[in-house]
Amino acid sequence: MVPNEKSFPRGGTIHSEAKTADISSNIVFGASQKKVKKAPKVKDNFLNDASEEQNEQLEAFSAESLNLDTLQEDMLVMGVVKETSATALQIALPGRLFARTLVADISEAYTRVAKAAMSGDTSEYHDLTELFQVGRIVYGKAIKTDKLGSSRISLLLSLKPADVHGSLHHKSIKKGFIFSGAVSEIQEHGYVIESGVQGLQAFVPCEEPAQTLHVGQLTFLKVNKVQHDTHQSTCTCVQVQQDQMRIKSQNETNLDYILPGSIVKFKVAKHLKDGLKGSIMNESFSAYINEHHLANALDTLDTYELNEDYNARVLYVMPLTKLVYLTLNLDIKAGDEVGKDQDEEEEEVGEPLKVGSVVEKAKVLRLGSGGVVLLLNKKLKGLISYGSIRANFKGNYDKDEVLSKYGRKTKHKVRILGYDVIESLYYCSDDPNVINEKIYSLEDINAGDLVTAKIFKKDAKIKGWSVRIGKVNGILEQFYLAPNLRYDVGQSVRCRVLEVNVERKVCYLSNRSEYLGKGVKLLTDYSDGHVGNVYTGTVVRCEDNYVLVKFGNGVKGVLHRQNLKEKSSFFEGQTTKFRILSRNKDQITLTMPEDKFQLGEICPVEVTNVLDAGLEIKITFAADDEDEDEDGNPSVEEYVGLIPLRLLSDHLELLHAQMRVHPAGSHTEAACIMQNIFSLRDVAYFSGQLTKDWQSVKVGDIIRSYVKHATDQVVDLMVSVRDYNKPVKVHVKMLRLNAVKNAPVELVPEQLLLVKVLSKEAETKTLTVSAKLTDVWSGDLSDTAKMVESYLDEVAKIKAALQNTSAPISKYSVGDKIDVVFKGIDATSNDWVYTVEGGSKVSALLLSSLVGTAKAPEAGSKNQAIILWIDYSSDVLLISNKKLDIAHISPSGKLSANLIGKAGMKAKVLLKLESVVVCSLKKGTNPLVICPIRLHPNDVENSGSAELRQGDFCNVAFIHDKLPIAVPETVWRLWRGIKRTAGSEESLVKPKKAKLEKLTEQKKTIIEEKKVKSEVKPLKRKAEEAEILTNGKKKTTPVTNGIVKEKPKQNGKLFFEDKTPAKNTKSETPKSNGTEAKTRLPGVSSFWDNDLNQSKEASSDEDEEQDALATQQNAAKKKRLSSKEKAKAEVKEEQRLREIEERNADPKARLETIDQYERLVIAQPNNSISWLKYMAFLLSNTEIEKARDLTRRAISTISFREAQELRNMWSALLNLELVYGNNFDEVLKEALNCNDPLEIYINVVDILKRNKKKERLSSVLTTILNKFKAELRVWPLAAEAYFWLGKSDQVHNLLQRALRGLPNQGHIPCIVSFAKLYAKNDNNDMAQTLLDDVVTSYPKRIDIWSVYVDMLIKAGLIDSARNVLERAALQKLKPNKMQVIYKKYLQLEENHGTEATVAKVKQQAEQWVKNYAKATK
Predict the structure, then answer these.
(1) Separation between Cα atoms, residue 643 and residue 680, nearest integer Å
(2) Alpha-carbon distance 1149 to 1142, whole Å?
(3) Alpha helices (H) in 655-706, listed in sequence order
(4) Residues 50-65: tens digit of each pLDDT
């Protein structure tokens, strides 16, 4: 290797010393490898021996490659340009080192041009990508620098001629001298060259038409003529290419003028263990070639014969020892050019390996210098460095033991880490962690990919986070951060890749929900942006006239506000969808998208792919223009969408069955839900009625909705209203009827719920709804029967679809008797597994709940069974093998006439599925009875089947006239007397205005009548009638192979747009206008309401309203009234007003309206209880924003003197923000500024405990204990919280900390408080220890004695309490204190002792009085 010497020897006797550099370099695997020293020579001729010894010392023992230790400061070294950018070069150096070259390190001329460009003069400026090509050879001065933020050393390479040639002298320049010079000036006949050699002026003649160089550009030059003078020399040069830089052996005898990159003749003198040793320049200088620097990468040392001459290129010259290191690889290529020459020479097409690619079978060629040499893909060279192998081991390991698995011709799986252009090899790693990394380089990810990133630091410059995806660095900028989320170092975040920046070696990501949704279309290239397409983008700049939007990979578009039909507000960071209006090369003009399909539109679709998430569909429809294709057919467009799994059916157990009967290529109909999301389950609903929009929706309407997100307290619902995309919130508590005790409410996304519109605010465009069962359902069990009937119809359609595909499962029906063969018992569920006899691949299952105590038959035995249910999703028959079931169950699915309407029929529960319960009547031969799990989609408590268990008996009541559909008798008795909210299907309740119009058209004025005769309605009302009717079937244009045959638009409507339904059909769900029907008996109409007065008041309000309408009608009919009639009317009106005033003045009256609550807070403005009641009322109606505004209003209204009332309101606001909002920290800061901080913190602790926010509570406790360590009540509060958090082991340390922070007078109260907490949390031993120490130290504290005794009594430790009282009675205290002790003692014995112990205490008290009297005399 090259010695790392300190100085050049200057003569005299040379003493052989240990070379520390050699020893350290041999430590490869933790153990030193010793070199054998040669025997000393005989000192006959002292001078000659000394010179010989000196020459031997200047020779290296091996041809080891360059590394950071042997690289000397200011050393000249050759490099190859690996990467270029506008401002820097990445240079590959020998020894697989890398250096950077900046703009200021190119040349003095280029620095001058760059400064001029910064000032605005760019006439002569060209960036580095134009001046340097990848693979270009350069040489320069190496400079070591410390890398910022780490202890690693980085290299800079200065190419400036002044730095590189500063040590040369102009008089030593000869003809044939080859150097690198920079163009200083371009003249008419040539270039003035910046050589860097002191006193040398160089010129390159070149006529103007042939000039291709730029000012500041470096080029290789060869001196053609030179004229020397005392102070200055001039030379004429010619430009040479890097493969023509040959130096003749007789030209130069000074190594300083043989610069790196020059080509010389190398004569091989010796084969070393790691390279070749020889000489150059007619054996004037020793030279070395490492084994990795041979002409061909796969050559071996034996290929080069001794005493033969070869062309070699100078890599570097050691500054002091003047040892020359060369490479035989004259034609240096970049990594992507490796496979090109091989393609020309061989017939096989060999692609170059990419960084990050994995080679499955890399064959070991040998153990070389620096690592294990590999053969990759039979023609490329690879290397696993010893350093990477050593990194997998700790401690000292023997080299042979570690390298034993790298035997010759063994094969290994490796990953390509990079390519070294100088050594022409790929450096690799066989570390399993590196190989198994999915994302290793930027080439492994593309814009649009979904990845999981890990945050590793915060970047203040971009106000975002730096992340890492595998081995790739990424950036989460502020605009692309999901709002209202907490970010921490080490947190994993799901992101979408927006841009891959190869120059900066980084990718840009976003974790916003708009980018993470399924089916998001990301524009990553200008050429992919087609006019009319919709893409997701982010607003990065907002101006008065335009908005700048950024898409993926830096693609940008402009949205001109004048192109918008409606005024829209934008903000920076807003992420939404945009449609391309026009595109001219790289200029994109945008507009806001109009949805292709509106909510409720039913489209013929073709299933293109079956995914785990649902069905991928394609909609083919006629294009908007009337162009024709080549065949003359109308041009069509295709729209891709998705039917999520949950939208395939209303019933969970049928989801996968529906997916099975809709394979790829099948055609069906689907209803649009939003943009490219469609639904199969909602087709019947939207085809049966008009879809509501914001204008047509009214208070009282019952609308279909879907769960978007559900928590333990609040459910976000998306309502089926066009042009209304905001979720509405519903309290989970408001969904409960408490019909089933402790019934869990489990809601999942996309679950169906019906909601009733309670209010509609036009200003904020907000709907308030209720999803309570009694609000959306009339209670008619016939609706439940229809729901079960639709379920059975869906099952029948699935069976029919499977019959068309000849599926074996479709041959069987419920109630069929079959022969089965027993296979065994399932180890997990203990169910008995059978196969159906007859060769089919259908399996049967006998549930363990039906097995009971029966013994399992032998494997292979045959049994007769009856089918109870068929699971079409998994091809399983659910059976029963009991003889009683086989005899009593008939295959007919129709209900006997004698069972219609019957109740109290005893049945056995056989199966309990997700949607239905299957039962069998105990007597007679009858079909299986189907009972619903839920009475209605909003029956979230499953009250229809709460009492049913598999294997139990129950009484059922039939609710269908033809099918065996029933409910438990208890449920039937509960709901049978409840009538519909509306009188009939066609007279559904209308809003108040419609009601008034109807009353004016009626002949009779009595509102209480159930039926009235109506006048013939004008044509204007026909649309309203059509809107009420539902379940009509819509006709659609016939479709063949998904292509529309007829015109796509009819009367301005798309062919798949929902039409007005038929008139003589019933609605899917009864509608209501928000008011109750006439007063019914308690337990029927208001069974679920605890307060009967509420129903009375509600009905009285309706009567008053109807009376007012009737009065207006009479006034319209009777133009004149007599004085008597006027007096009666005035008395009646006065009486009505008096009743309203009395009801409003009644303090016990239940408040039900906003007006009533407003009167309450106006009457009691400083009473926080009134404000809190008002706030609770708004929250019960999910008016969260109104509740927040009300709390702010209360804080500003309550007098500042009412500190406690204000604190109550601040606590309520904090609780609201914690549960429903995301501004808790901001509100807490505001509350602390406006109130006593300690009081607020105490309330915050209580709020966090009630809402189970453990992490936030821990941080708040830390803050409190640091700020208020001298406050006594803080420490018991923290101790109680520690017990609640499960940190009871830290309470004792907390007590010690409290005693250090509190003044002395607070120690005893603190210890007593902690003792009470220990006792409260069942740690009586610790509590006794604390109190025992206190009463021992302070025996006169009667209060503590009392607390001690009470605690022991409460814990049931009567004997211990008796002992404590006896100790207290022995104390010498004053009579008033002893009286307390004896009273406590006597009370204890009276409650827990005997008559003897009571007498004993009395006697002791008397004796103490006598002794005290004697002592005082």
Answers:
(1) 7
(2) 10
(3) 655-660, 683-688
(4) 333 334 435 667 788 8
